[in-house]
Structure formats: C-alpha cells, structure tokens
Design a protein that fits this description.
Elements: E1 4-9, E2 12-17, H1 25-51, E3 61-64, E4 70-77, E5 80-88, E6 107-115, E7 120-126, E8 133-142, E9 145-151, E10 159-166
Antiparallel strand pairs: 1-2, 3-4, 3-10, 4-5, 5-6, 6-7, 7-8, 8-9, 9-10
Length: 178
C-alpha cells in the first residue's frame, strides 16, 4: 500500500501523504494546499528562467576532444555550464556507459561555475566507463582552444590537462563522427 500520492500539474510533481497514513488530517490538508500553491509557482519559475537569456561565454559551443574521438556540446544549464557528448568515433553499436545507457547524448560535464579569481569554470566530469566523477576545470584559452583539467581529491596538481579544439564539422545519426 502506498504511503504517498503524486500530485502533478504543469509538468511538476509533488509527493503528498495519503489519507490514513497520518494522524492529522490538518497536516494532509496543509500538504495539499502547499502543493497547490507550489506547483503553479514552480511552473512560473521555469517559464521565467526560460525567458531570461544568459550571455554567451567563450567556453560554449562544440568542442572536439584531444584524441579526436568525441565532440561535446557545452552550454548553460541554468546558472552553470554543462556539456554532453554528441559525437563519437566508434565501430559497431553505439557505446554504452557502465550502467548500460547509450553514451550518445550523455551529460558528462556538470555543475561548472565560474571562479573569477582563476578565470576558469570549476565543476565535475563523468567517466562513463567507470561511472566515477572527477573534479574538473575548463577555460577557453582562445576562441578555438579549450583547456580541460580533470583531477582527484580536489587538488589540480593530481590531474591531467587536455586541449580541446572548436568543432565545425558534421555529426551523423546516433552521434557518429565522420
């Protein structure tokens, strides 16, 4: 028997307690009332967020990895930068991550926030083959060169830097690079 009910509205979902699961019907009523107030508010917030344009930064765009085996689309995800793998060199079926998901379209760069004192974006990078997430920094060295440094233990000294280049080519079906 479920203890919670899903209340859906405008693409948002809120869990509220079912009847009989709580001693206080007043608490359940407050949960429902809060959900009815929050659902439209959360929808309005997402509409407002979609309407606000974030200025472009040099790190945005299509980037070819150092080994020329992957293309990433880097862009704004709210107030952070994120990047997903949209092109790969491979033979046979589309490569899968450690959980069996297609790597095509996999968000691998997450939560990059601008560090003004270092003029770089700091966030995390996912290794799809192991499922491990590492600390990372990215910065555009020029309009066509991006430096990415992945590291462990929060210490950039324990890391490796790759040089990615701006990608202007095409990408085939299922993220296949020509």
């Amino acid at each position: 028997m479920k203890a919670w009910t899903l209340l859906r509205s405008h693409g948002s979902t809120i869990l509220i307690p079912e009847k009989g699961r709580l001693r206080s019907s007043l608490f359940r009523a407050l949960c429902v009332l809060g959900a009815l107030i929050l659902l439209p508010a959360s929808s309005l917030t997402s509409v407002r967020a979609q309407g606000v344009q974030t200025p472009p930064v040099p790190e945005e765009g299509l980037w070819l990895s150092q080994d020329h085996d992957g293309v990433f689309l880097i862009g704004h995800c709210g107030d952070t930068l994120c990047g997903k793998l949209i092109g790969m060199q491979y033979d046979g079926p589309v490569p899968k991550d450690v959980w069996g998901r297609s790597q095509c379209g996999l968000v691998m760069l997450t939560d990059f926030r601008l560090s003004k004192d270092e003029n770089a974006w700091q966030g995390h990078i996912l290794d799809p083959e192991t499922g491990r997430t590492y600390d990372a920094r990215i910065h555009a060295e020029s309009s066509d060169v991006l430096k990415l440094r992945g590291f462990i233990l929060g210490i950039p000294l324990f890391g490796k830097t790759q040089t990615w280049t701006r990608y202007r080519g095409t990408i085939g079906p299922e993220c296949k690079l020509p």
